[in-house]
């Protein structure tokens, strides 16, 4: 009896495994097809100077325009993209596309010429020998200035080989490219060697910002991160600002930059064009909504 129970349990387990494997393989096939059919899009979320409320740049965020399911966010496919390595070519495509787009906008909207763009890279990029050559060729091919490009990386890139990752970051910085530590505060504690990271910006993770006005400990943590960052001469971006109260609190704490639905959602290229076409760059103070892409 015990034996048959065990067998039944094994079958249930293997069925789940099988279903999961099939789902993973389907998603992989779909992602490859999406790349071939050019179904990926770059969205641009404004980053704002909290002292002036002027837009200083964008973070580029990947979207998948699925023929049946509409616009899909990375949360639904990032795990598979990471696991299969598809995140490598997809992220390079995002970077090249964003640089080309910024160069087109520079011609039409002179005021966009000072804006910077942040591009997310995964930990996997730092295990590849083509990281620096790819960066160089994208900058050379698009003519986009290195000084206006910023790579967003997480502490995860330091897990495997810290020394190699740090050396690579140093070369990136020597090219004039900025480096942001993304989702700061959620990874493995890097406080002890933060001063050794060749980075120029910290992005405080959304979890601290969303609890800012409800949990006293969050305000304390954000305050401590700001003191630490500023003493290391790092700029700070607060991620996921959704309310006026959060924005006010961060401004009062001396946080340099902010990003979040309170200012603007991630925008399609067309929506960015509408923003750039206005007489002056608006102080982005009203919450806006993510419209469809038509
Ligand atoms: P991330 O780099 O931390 O990006 C910020 C995420 O927060 C984005 O989610 C953005 O849409 C979301 N966000 C911004 N403001 C708010 C807010 O006020 N409230 C809330 N609730 N969320 C806000 P998204 O676009 O779904 O991207 C998720 C993650 O996927 C990114 O986190 C990044 O790690 C990854 N990712 C996105 N695009 C790329 C890419 O091109 N390459 C790579 N390697 N990763 C990417
Ligand atoms: Mg990011
Ligand atoms: Mg982040
Ligand atoms: Mg994130």
Automatic annotation (TrEMBL):
Q: Where is the EAL domain?
A: 24-280
Q: Report the superkingdom from the record.
A: Bacteria
State the protein's name: Tll0627 protein
**Lineage per the UniProt record:** Bacteria, Bacillati, Cyanobacteriota, Cyanophyceae, Acaryochloridales
